[in-house]
């Protein structure tokens, strides 16, 4: 993988791993909710686009994988006697959705945007998991995050390939570049926080 994993325009601030390691309980809680939301997002896509046979076929196992990741993060929390606690606001995802999702317009374009938002979240998660797998002190968590990094890279590809199934690849790539630029701008203007996965 490149420095900016999966073509992301802006690498994570290197301070993030050090900040994160000091707040491992908080990051695991946030991570648990990220996995839960990823599963929910795939379910929503399946419900919304139930007429898209390939989408349903591809995303159904992703739901199971994301829920499995949620269960694995819960296990890591239990090992450390850390309660799950309440869900936190995800400023990163909220900004992506508010700046990139269309409220009206062509249905195929809306489908593409929904898939690409999910691809972007998976790509950033993959990059963060890579950093954790290479830098965090806890050996068990390093292995854990390496496994998740590989899985998230696969999910990223699922979303991109689905977008290219329903729209011309050239249009998807053009829109993807716009998404990457917006995501880089969002991260540039966000504080580096060690209690959040994104």
Characterization of the model:
With 198 residues, the protein is mainly alpha-helical. The mean pLDDT is 89. It contains seven helices and no strands. Helix 5 (107-135) packs across helix 7.
Topology overview:
Blueprint: H1 15-21, H2 24-48, H3 53-79, H4 91-100, H5 107-135, H6 139-166, H7 169-188
User: Radius of gyration in whole Å, from Cα?
Assistant: 16 Å
Overall helicity: over 70%
Main sheet overview: none
Could you say which overall geometry the principal axes of the C-alpha atoms support? globular
Question: What string, H for helix and E for strand, traces the elements in order?
Answer: HHHHHHH
| Number of distinct helices | 7
Unreliable stretches, pLDDT < 50, 5 or more residues?
none
Give the total of beta strands.
0
Protein name: tRNA-(Ms[2]io[6]A)-hydroxylase
Organism: Spirosoma soli
Brief overview:
Helices cover 74% and strands 0% of the residues.
Keywords:
198 residues; mainly alpha; globular; tRNA-(Ms[2]io[6]A)-hydroxylase; tRNA-Hydrxlase_MiaE; Ferritin-like; Ferritin-like_SF
